[in-house]
Amino acid sequence: MRFSLLSVARQGLAGNEGWPEQWRSPEPKAAYDAIVVGAGGHGLGAAYYMAREHGLRNVAVLDKGWLGGGNTGRNTTIIRSNYLWEESEAIYEHAMKLWEGLAEELNYNVMYSARGVMMLAHNTHDVQSFQRHVAANQLAGIDNEWLTPQEAKAFCPILNIEKTIRYPIVGAALQRRGGTARHDAVAWGYARGADRLGVDIIQNCEVKGIRRDASGAVAGVETTKGFIATKKLGVVAAGNTSVVMGMAGVRMPLESYPLQALVSEPVKPIMPCVVMSNTIHAYMSQSDKGEMVIGAGTDAYTSYSQTGGLHIANHTLDAICELFPVVRRLRMLRNWGGIVDVTPDRSPIIGKTPVPGLFVNCGWGTGGFKATPGSAHVFAHTVATGEPHPIAAPSISIASAPGG
Amino acid sequence: MTARFRTASGGRVDRARPIRFTFDGKSYEGLAGDTLASALIANGVHFVNRSYKYHRPRGFLSAGAEEPNALVGVAEGPGRFAPNLRATQTPLIEGLAVTSQNRWPSLAFDVGAVNDLMSPFYGAGFYYKTFMGPNLFGKNWAWKTIYEPIVRRAAGLGQPPTNADPDAYAQYYDHCDVLVIGAGPSGLAAARAAAAGGAEVILCDEQAEMGGSLLAETRATIDGAPAAEWLARTLADLAALPNVRLMPRTQAFGYYAQNFVGLAETVSQDERARNADAPRERLWQLRAREVVIAAGAIERALVFPDNDRPGVMLAEAARVYLNRYGAKVGERVVLVTAHDSAYRAALDLKGAGVEVAMIADLRAKADGALPQAARAAGLRVLAGATIHAAAGKRRVAGARLSAPGFAEQTVACDALLMCGGWTPSVHLHSQSRGKVVWEEARGLFLPGDSVQRERSAGACRGVFGLAQAMADGARAGADAASRAGRPSPTMEAPAVADAPEAFGGALGDQSPPAARKAKAFVDYQNDVCAKDIRLAVQEGMRSIEHVKRYTTTGMATDQGKIANMNALAIAADKLGRSVPEVGLTTFRQPYTPVTFGLFAGASRGDLFDPVRKTPIHDWAASQGAAFEDVGLWKRAWYFPQGREDMHAAVRRECRQTRASVGMFDASTLGKIEVVGPDAARFLERLYTNPWAKLEVGRCRYGLMLNEQGFIMDDGVIARIAADRFHVTTTTGGAPRVLNHMEDYLQTEFPDLKVWLTSTTEQWAVIAVQGPKSRELIAPFVEGIDLSREATPHMSVREGRVCGAPARLMRVSFTGELGFEINVPPDVARSVWETLWAAGAALGVVAYGTEAMHVMRAEKGYIIVGQDTDGTVTPDDAGMGWAIGKAKADFVGKRSLARADLSAPGRKQFVGLLTENPRVVPMEGAQIVARADYAVGEHAIGHVTSAYDSPALDRSIALAVVENGRARMGETVFIAAVVAGQRRDSRHGLRSRVPRQEGRAPRWLALSLRRRAAARSRGARCPPGRASRSQSRRRRRASSCAATRRSPRRPAPPSASPFPAHPARRPRARGAPRSGSDRTNGY
């Protein structure tokens, strides 16, 4: 059923009894043309675009838990494309363009909200760095502009631009098209879209092994629901990439760190945009529900524990209270963690692997959510055609990466 | 005047101490000891809030931390407004000004209430299905412009604060043998038992008064005494023990790794009245050897139509209001229950003169000890009852009931009390990573095996009876003490009488089948009804996490304390699966919301981060220096004189340094003393350069790479003795480098005998640079022959300067003859001032970091973090010479062998000259290969540093450019930035570039010409005079300064690094070093 104001009205009058399942919960078939491991936004999106743009419909997405339950459902939902390097600009801007039309494309309101992402500069080094970003982005045709402290405050009135604070704000870089989206809706929208195109989404189905044929190519996966055959296997299992790839004997140049986030109790609108400060390690926005959504830094040490230390929350909130003194009396409602996979150069890996038929999309670090549509779209191309998408081609192939 | 619903006597409120407060502007009177909720209830006020989505009238559901409805805004003066506080937890203080939330214009008349009528269209997740068009003016237009602003205004709960919070918050670290969380019956028993053998015990409880359920207990006796008496005595006994600390008003909000528990203490009004400096709250970060969780249980609501009307309350809450606060919830109550415990409330209310119209028990049989007692007391009990709905709107008016032999009818009441049983509070056990296990018989999730050193006791592990819970607590306390290594003498558990155990419980939707479309609330605050849960399942949400996120059940500020179990049961029922199969959502900290300010503590203003100042800081300040933030440091940026702006000051400082002598405070440089028989071997592995053969008394420039082969840090390293090195790092990199070294030493090279000591603050550094530097310092140096031969360039000598022990290095970061004097910090200022006074005759100048940057750029030295960005290899930086070719290994070596790092097209470090010598390009400006570039043009590099050079009287820039070294002599172009500002060293501030139409860069700001620097090595570098590395350095340096043919004015003689004067003063060419003074990142 197509979602629309009309269908909401019609179903509402009929007691909402006619809404169908947004996706099925099928048992796995014996074989698929392609299998994606990981039902997060990137994996579900990849399946969606495989079916939609590459005619690959006999596809399954497997997840050891529930769909959208990894970093897709744990992040602070920031979207921006004002990255520094051309390779990054290309993939994130590709994503940004898809974000802008995603609700219509999926017929699912993912609530992409271009409310502006502002990055604060506190010292000369920040000014140099962000002005470099502005220059690079403008050359690439990506919006990003430099603001004075007064302009920054006009854009975000609760910002403290006093010169007397410990790290006064000396300027800011603003990407007006940046913003936020409803993270769960992204996973659900892709799941519904993929399902409607015939993709099987199989939750609570953990991959336990990758079977390879005599030539060394992928033959299928061993799962908690039995063996499933496929010749194309795309691994998009952020936080567990190294574990899954290890099943095929591929060592990944990744380290995994806990990353924390937290929200306040909801209040009426107070903050119209996203503000980030890399220098004092804090970023904040306000969700449509009214919660102040706050991101912290990664823990200093690698871990697979989806929680983090209290000291990280302490440091994050002292930075937040310094930048936004009016929130000091608000209260923390919930604090959680996720696991991010980090590559040596902090850039993602999307591509082929030394194992024929095995593809990987990983290493998004703390930047995965914003890339979701772009990453999914490019990875679908990679899995479907067996060759990297032009946008992903510059990535270092893992065959030559350390430990590859 | 006594409030109408206040009992004549009883309870723990002080009837002699009335307290005035206002609610929505109307004045009320409560009593000391009241919460805001009990005071309002005593005044007969139940309608206190509107719900989030449907704007339905709401009252008090509970009497504690689980309250989902009664959220209010509380103002305690300017800047002291806090939204969303639970009235049930807010202690009443004189003058409290309270406002209701989520209504406009008033609580009674609220425009938003129309939402309740529209609710058929506001089913679970409706917003995912609509608001997507029409997109008349571009993609996503309708959502962004029309719908989202409406949604945002409608959402949110209370008003945000508008002023900075003036209150203080304190933070403490502490430890103990046994932490007991919860001072109810089992927690008290646990604390007594744990303390008996001398263990250090902390007992905390979120409430102002300790005792938990005992505070409302009027029937039971313990050790022969009424519960209240036993409680008072026990608390007094515990308080008297030296090894016990009682912490009321202290919530254990988070359970972290290794028994690290976060406690949030609210400071009492009494303490704040006594001590004006007392903080509002205290954060205790506590490490406990053993933890006893005695968190109790939360009464479960019943799900039935209109179960949200003001006056519909949990039964035990009504008992608490009566027994503890002396406040009657109504005049005529009906109880609906599936658990025996509600009968206690009925009996107590009847005893207080409240009419108990009916007890409707949903169970087929109600014949436990308590129901029998109720019947014996003459109360009417209806077994096998069905609750059809609550009547009334702004206040409950009746309960629509039926039962076998009891036709459906509305029983009038002004309070409808309900009890669906009890849910153990497993939050902290779960936060500690312990799993929960499902007990089918009673329908409870209970704590499973412990992962950390904790155990649960009492109701939070399903041991509900008072006697049983106290015995369980005593056992847990003794166990904790003995496992903490303390003696734990056996203690008799308290003897409890007149506290019959209560049984029962119900989960899920209790609505009759015909009423399944009605609004039967599961999550009150988020307005989630049973039908919403069923709709989510119908739409394919099969995991409880999906149900939660789709319906928002359990996501409100009570985090599902009331909602979760019922939501789970309804979802499981609809799915036809068991509760544990559907699963439980994750419990996260905090248990109840915790103020942001508490986490921030004293870290505000100047204490946000410590300010580091050098010993010479105050002198610089007295000279009128402007300072800049560099990491934690305040560094002297420039020294304006008179009306000089930054540009003028920097020009003067540079010129004077090159003409005579300048003094620079380099104390912020990181310093690490690397000592031990393997010190040289260690440095061989950490730096790219060779160290083994460096002679004692000599210095060498060191380059440090990360594992990826990119430049991470640099600095001059001096060999003080065969087994001792004085390592310097960049200012910002000091902690990072030490961590990096320690990491390798401890994990990779544990066999090396090396010790690392940070000496950053043990040595103040006075850099004396310029042609007259030797002349300036010589009179004050003892024990060191400063002659060129005895103390050659890149050497270190120990001796005395101005009488102070000193390490004197002959090094230069300006290209001039130079010395860096390391002296102990306590004498640094006097050494500085002595030299300064003597320098007056020589024309000495003090220069700051900006002049330092300019002079090093004139020389062509990199600054790590400004000219490098984590992607620059030594070869990219033109510093391949710094790699010890014969070395077997060093950190980063393996990565340097990767094809990518030697592929053609890498960006290489070069100097640039603008065609217009007056224009200083923006640092960070992008470089393109052609003038007629378009948007999307590939950038071949960027400007890393740019200054107006006083020595050359023109602008200079450093950059990384693809194949830069092969492009010597070519012209490249800078892509324009169309809007915004740029840093301009001529003005020292950011000056505006006018905004222009269009987003795309469309003009050529400048074209830059690169000069072939080293015309020929021989020409610039007399054979035999310069090392290979020096000549390479020179090539780079000259590239930005090749104004040989038409210098606007001759460079001063000392500006020898420039090609105009290559041979005149070759000795002045120092080794490159750098001060990454701009980095403070990672």
Question: Care to give the gist of this entry?
Answer:
The complex is a heterodimer of chains A (404) and B (1082). With 404 residues, chain A is an alpha/beta fold.
Number of helices of chain A: 9
Number of strands of chain A: 19
Which fold name fills CATH's third level, the topology of the domain at 169-297 and 424-497 in chain B? FAD/NAD(P)-binding domain
Oligomerization category of the chains in this entry: heterodimer
Q: Helical stretch count of chain B?
A: 26
Beta-strand level of the residues of chain B, as a percent range?
25-35%
Can you summarize the main beta sheet of chain B?
7 strands, mixed
| Number of β-strand runs of chain B | 54
- How much beta of chain A, percentage-wise? 15-25%
The helix/strand order of chain A is: HEHEEHEHEHEEHEEEEEHEEEEHEEEH
Radius of gyration of chain A: 21 Å
Q: Largest interface, counted with CB-CB under 8 A?
A: A-B, 116 and 125 residues
The outline of chain B comes out as elongated
Any idea what the radius of gyration of chain B is? 38 Å
Give me the side-by-side strand order of the main sheet of chain A: 5-6-4-14-15-16-13-17
Helix content of chain A: 25-40%
Structural class of chain A: alpha/beta
**CATH homologous superfamily of the domain at 169-297 and 424-497 in chain B?**
FAD/NAD(P)-binding domain
Structural class of chain B: alpha+beta
Mean pLDDT of chain A: 93
